[in-house]
Amino acid sequence: MNEIDLLLRELIETACNHPPRSLERQQVLAMVYLIVMKSGKLWKEHTSYYNDALQEMWEYCCEHPEEYNPDIKSPIVWLDDELKKRLRRMRDGKNRQTRRILTAIQTEQGITTNPVDNVAAPPDIQSVMDIWEKTILWVKNDSDERLRNICFRKRPEINAQALILRRLPPDTPSWQTIAAEFKLNPQEAKDLPKFYNRKCLPLLREFGLSQGYIEQ
Prior knowledge:
By secondary structure, the chain is mainly α. The chain is built from 8 helices and 4 strands, in the order H-H-H-H-E-E-H-E-E-H-H-H. The strands form 2 sheets. It has a two-stranded antiparallel sheet with strand order 1-2. A two-stranded antiparallel sheet has the order 3-4. Helix 1 (3-16) runs antiparallel to helix 2 (23-39) and helix 7 (175-181) packs across helix 8. The N and C termini lie far apart (64 Å).
């Protein structure tokens, strides 16, 4: 074990001898943080969520220094393991989000059509995210107010813009949730998905065609 690992082991042991959340413990853990970060020995990878994972790791380890077992691994390895655990969780979350974006839009009859099925080349994660972001921007801007002027049952607040924003992945509430939000009666709640399939999905397809995301 090298000098840095020996010093870190001593500091973590010292921190554990002070009461939780005491000033003394926080001061010792701050030294651990500074030494580790200055050493450059922590696992690194070029991902958009690396810094978030790093922050989570430090918050957890500084709150639970007692979990470090010097008989099993060095301090750096312990920190690395905790960091990689959070990176894996965030990576899995990103992958789940991407799969939700690619998930088919279900029609009332249960027939599914994937909005990117006919993209010219197989989309990677970044291209899918680009399509999703541009679609969201188009819906929110609604520059010609076309989406806002297509309303359900003369309810201006239940328009194509509002419905598409709610139904786009990744966070897609159920039709029951949307009906409850707009305080629809049972018949209106039953008709809302029909309105969406008849009026809103064609607009999404039209936009996809205009952008070259899908083909005829």
